Amino acid sequence: MQDKLNKPNNIQLFTFFSVFWAFSTLIHQLVWLEWSHYNIPMGWMVTLFCILHIGTLGKHKTFFILAVVSSMFWYLLRQPFSVNHLFYEALMSIFISIVLVFYYLKNKFSTQTITLESYFVTNAFPILRVGIILLYFFVVLHKLNYDFFKTEISCGAILFENLLNNLQLTKLNFIDNFYNNNHILIAQFSIYSALIAEAIIPLLLLFKRSRKLGLILAMIFHFLLGLEGLMAIISFTGMMFTYLSVFWPVKTVSAVINNLLPYKNKLKIGFIAFISLLALAYITKHIGTLMRLVNAVWIIYSIFIILIFIRFSKGENSGNNISFRPKTSIYWIFPILICINGFSPYLGLKTQTVFSMFSNLKTENGSNNHFFIPNELQLFNYQKEIVVITETNMQELTGTDAWNNTKNYKYVLFEFIRKLNSINDGHVNFQVNNKSYYVKKENGEIIESNIDLKQSVILKRLFLFRPIYDDVNLCQQ
Description:
Number of helices: 18
Largest sheet: 6 strands, antiparallel
Strand order of the largest sheet: 5-4-3-1-2-6
Distance between the termini: 48 Å
Oligomer: single chain
């Protein structure tokens, strides 16, 4: 039994995934540099262990373990102010850390010895596969709303236009003229093509015979999406490449590793050169150059991964036999948590970090814009408590929504109270469901108030709500 569990291929699968994971996590760290600006030790630790693990080409699994555990604490430290895919990464870092802990407990109290690599492949891989299928499910589900299909505000149309501009294709007269003359048609194409791709990919990944096509389509789709130019999307693409790697056929992974081994020294030198250039750009405070370097390396990395998959999966028409069921049933709690998180906006809970990125979804104020999910599904009132500011001198409450460059938005009460607690001085009069409230603060202390500003420490970490627009839900990350 022990020999069956400890398959040699599991070492390669584990190493392959761990290097993928370390690289995408390093990209996350480079896109969001607050850990370096504020000199946060946990952020430095994540970055260092990822660099060491990639630099040794996954030879020392200790670096991976340290990187995962430190990333878990780093992601938790940053909650709830996180983008959608980094919240997913937080869930996965917690999951992987628990798998590692359970492995060591199992080996300590069991007479049967199993390698870390084999335990990870037979327990973590199935849940990682289920997780990415569920992520696609919610991405598609949230986009099935009326506003996503409105060409003038749809995130699908906006991202496609940004992609054309970022690639400077609109500077070519014939493309610019064609785009201007067929603007609505092109916007509709971008909306439907993105939605169809995100719906088809998980279906292709589920089945053995279509898995190879699904992987190629997924990697090309996310690569093209990353060309939009937003660094957050590049970070997201890196994450998707990582979790798609658990669908790669065993023979393909083995072929890639065996064929790249003769070039390992050159790969190490290239990576050291990349890190050295990053360090130089950071030390000399050329952050723009640093980001352009990350962008360039991401493009090279993405094209390289797509090409080696196509090259070394050649002939594997039927894909590989993979499992969606972990050996240890308790790990199913994580797909359940993913589902609860994804359904949160429809239940009346949080509206941010629910995998609704670029979806135009609106669920606040007792009505949603979804095609078929009923408003009556909302069991909680958080989204129904809309704040209407009647008078204030707190400039922090009247700022501009940077993404849509507009001031015409409101808060839900939970988010409004969080904002009030961060303001030191000023007063505000506001209404919630036709009830009037006021708050006056001086030097961070509440001088006058007729509303309780206390919030649960746990809920403050779990909940985050998006800005609310009056008529439609504009494109938001």
